[in-house]
Specification:
This protein has 15 helices and eight strands. By secondary structure, the chain is α+β, with helices and mostly antiparallel strands. It is globular. Among the domains are: 103 residues, Endonuclease III, domain 1; 43 residues, no CATH class.
Length: 327
């Protein structure tokens, strides 16, 4: 792995830049293909996520709050050179560039995965650029994961979008228009109750987020722990269970074995793909993924199932949409 920093003014990319805005650059050399939209797409919470953007030039933009403050990161692949390039702005720029290798999956080792199902062998060959991202940040994945508890994805994404637009801050540097950095933990704590309601967030999920931001330093410490220890730390908080903790460490740690349990759809998808059993529950799903447990690859196996395209046809209505913002 190689990398270098170089302060320079940003240029190119097809997005209007602010004149005179200094940026920092780092280029890293992965040891294999990296599909940036596939690797980083798990960080996007819906097509309108104000903290994430893919621009027509293929660049992935990310606005986030680091331990050093807000930062904007623009990531591009340079296949002709075999490199991935990051440009960053804001107080968190250097922190973001230091974490660039983990973010683009260079700390992940897909060669550890040994497929035990023909479908997964085929899918792994079809997506050689799949790597598991590691952000090194907990709260930025924890809050939207809590928003996604027991509601439809559309409801959760709408709430995340509204809260960032109302209480986040503009992304530093020449970010695409409308990009926002999520609020500081103290700002989350000051969100009025009626604004949670307008965002469609019920009292239980709002209370869980407020508990988390009150101890945000303890939450962020979990990023330096092994995934299982991190999950235990998160699950100490009421309102955070195995589903939420798995969703977090998959992103914060790049945890290849943190398979999501308690999901409404995943067991049936995995069961259908690997055993033609669309009625599989968590226990059945874990049995099917057991061959991947020894190498710590159950989450990667489940991710490949989702990427395989082999999903059961719907035979029941989707989860009923419960928009409390209109009550």
């Amino acid at each position: 792995m190689a990398g270098r920093f170089a302060p320079r003014a940003p240029r190119g990319g097809g997005v209007p830049r602010q004149a005179g805005v200094p940026g920092a650059v780092r280029e890293v050399v992965p040891d294999g293909p990296v599909d940036l939209p596939l690797v980083l797409g798990v960080l996007r919470r819906g097509a309108g996520d104000p903290s994430f953007r893919i621009t027509p030039d293929g660049a992935v933009w990310r606005a986030t709050r680091t331990p050093l403050g807000p930062g904007t990161l623009r990531v591009t692949a340079r296949p002709s050179l075999g490199t991935v390039r990051g440009e960053a702005w804001g107080p968190g720029a250097r922190w973001l560039l230091e974490g660039l290798p983990g973010l683009v999956g260079m700390e992940d080792d897909p060669s550890v995965f040994v497929p035990h199902h023909p479908l997964l062998a085929l899918t792994a060959r079809r997506v050689p650029g799949l790597r598991l991202t590691r952000t090194g940040l907990v709260l930025e994945s924890l809050i939207p994961s809590v928003l996604e508890q027991k509601v439809t994805a559309d409801e959760a994404y709408r709430g995340w979008r509204r809260l960032l637009q109302a209480f986040g801050e503009p992304a530093p540097g020449p970010a695409p228009e409308g990009m926002r950095v999520m609020p500081h933990p103290r700002a989350w704590a000051l969100v009025p109750s009626w604004e949670w309601h307008r965002a469609g967030v019920d009292d239980k999920r709002a209370a869980t987020i407020l508990r988390a931001v009150r101890v945000f330093e303890r939450m962020e410490e979990a990023a330096a722990m092994p995934p299982e220890a991190a999950r235990a730390r998160l699950e100490v908080l009421p309102g955070i269970g195995p589903w939420t903790s798995a969703e977090v460490v998959q992103r914060s740690h790049g945890a290849a074995d943190a398979v999501t349990t308690g999901d409404l759809h995943l067991p049936g998808i995995v069961g259908h793909a690997l055993a033609d059993d669309r009625d599989a529950d968590d226990a059945a799903m874990l049995r099917l993924l057991e061959p991947y447990a020894g190498a710590g690859q159950r989450h990667r196996a489940a991710r490949l199932v989702l990427l395989s395209g082999r999903t059961p046809a719907r035979r029941a209505p989707r989860m009923r949409r419960g928009d409390i913002s209109v009550w």
